[in-house]
Structures are given as C-alpha cells and as structure tokens.
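Bug report (template v2)

What were you trying to do?
Predict the complex of my protein with magnesium ion.

What happened?
Run completed; filing so the output is reviewed.

Input:
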Amino acid sequence: MAEVNLRDIEKTFRDNLTVIPDLNLRVREGSFTVLVGPSGCGKSTLLRMIAGLEPVTQGSIEIGGRDVTDVEPSNRDIAMVFQSYALFPHMTVARNIDFGLRLAKTPAAEREAKLMEAARLLNLEDLLDRKPAELSGGQRQRVAIGRAIVHNPGVFLFDEPLSNLDAALRTKTRVELAELHHRLDATMIYVTHDQIEAMTLADCIVVMNAGRIEQVGSPMTLYKRPETRFVASFIGSPR
Ligand code: ADP
Ligand code: MG
C-alpha cells in the first residue's frame, strides 16, 4: 500500500477551461478514500491525473513517497478500474485477467498463481473459461477488478465502478469491495456521486465541488459536522 500526495494541482484543458484551480490532498496509506461530488466537478479528471492518463497543468503527485508527476501510468504502482469494464470481448475471463501479465512477460507459473489468487478472491473460479458476453454485469465488474488485482498495486483507483449495476447488485458488490479492501494491503481511491456508497465504503470522504475540495473527513464527521452548506446538502444530517 502507498500514500498518495497531491500538491498544488491545477488542471486546465486546452481551451483554457480550468476545471481544478489549486488542489491539495493527502490520501492516507491503506485508507479507503472516497471522492464525492456532483457530475462535472472534476472527480474523473483528478483520478486520471493520479493514474497518469492525464497530465497535470501545475503541481506534483507523489505515490508511496516517490514523485511520479512525469512517470508513465505503468510505472506508478496504481491500477485503475473503470465504470465501463473495458474487457476484451473475444478473450476468456482468464485471458482478460492475465492480459497485463502476459504483456509484461511474467513467467507462466507466476502468472498462473496470480490469476488463481485473483479468481479466488473475486469468486471467479468457475467462470474463467467464459467470454465477457456470457457474464452478468456484476461478474464483468469482478473481472475488471481482477485485472487490477494481479498487478499487486499499492493504490487502486476506481471510477464509479458500480454505476452500471442495478440496485441489488450494487449493494452486493459494495459489500464485496469492502471485504476486498480488508484482505488486500492497498490504498483505495474511489470516485462516486452516490452518497450511500460514500457513507458505507469510506473511512475518509473527500467532498468536491467545482474543482475544489469542500471538506475532508470521516463519514461520521461529515454527517454530523458539515463545514459548508454544500457538504450539508450533499451528505450532512437533515436539520
Ligand atoms: P466528474 O468526473 O466529476 O463528473 P470530470 O472530471 O469528468 O467530472 O469533468 C470535469 C470538467 O472537466 C467538466 O466540466 C468536463 O466537461 C471537463 N473535461 C473533462 N475532460 C475534458 C477534456 N478532455 N477536455 C475538455 N474538458 C474536459
Ligand atoms: Mg466522472
């Protein structure tokens, strides 16, 4: 697991649209940190900058004490799970999960061990020979998480991973994610616009609004002592 440190981050897109003016955030090592905020407030952009999929305009990013601001995504000790599962339709579940290991030329024995470990953790053992089209939405999402797990990242980045699932499956997968966090030695940064997800999964919630952080705190702190009207209306207790 690894700490993530964002210092003076600015993000301005080409058309001079500044979506994040100046953001500072320390994500505690091993925490389950949830970024919440309305659509368009910059959550995905922030996650993509941590992943290295989007360059920062200003500022620096440290992961595990190392400055990775100019480091390729594949060398950042992170793995990202997207809302759209981005599985390869023509490959089996097993091939989808160990694709990255094959790319990295991981020896077959080690690859097999990591694949089986991920399958066991995610309850996918009986589905390894299926194709994505033969899976439910929840199963596909578990495959997408499996693809991240085999790399043993210090930091998992999730961008609204449950938003394509129906309500019942969302609840079930949420519980599985919480268990997974307990079993893996990893820091999780999880983006959602769903207050319930944030309140039940997080040990730390970061409330964002229009590219800025409104408040950082435990679910209970935000609920009981929201510091701004925005936090109160988004997550706070009704009063
Ligand atoms: P969220 O994930 O919180 O819904 P995003 O990070 O996707 O928000 O988007 C934040 C803002 O940045 C939005 O106004 C969006 O239109 C803008 N944005 C995102 N990506 C790009 C891009 N590649 N080019 C220009 N503007 C973008
Ligand atoms: Mg988004």
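What did the reviewer find?
The mean pLDDT is 92. The radius of gyration is 18 Å.
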